[in-house]
Known about the structure:
Layout lengths: L2 H5 L7 H29 L7 H13 L1
Amino acid sequence: MSETVQSQMIGFLTLAQFWTRVTRLFATISKARVMQYKLQLQTLKKGGLCMKDYLSKMKGYIDI
Length: 64
């Protein structure tokens, strides 16, 4: 567990409290990533790229 996550887990008295916090923390991170990926895909422009390069760029966003 990273130090950042560890610091947010201090003070819990039960394992249930700990897991509730872990679940919320990672759900928030996941939602932020989904929004970031969605924005990247929505704003992607083909411009002067050939189709192969355009699709590769798109795939690169998804594979992150």
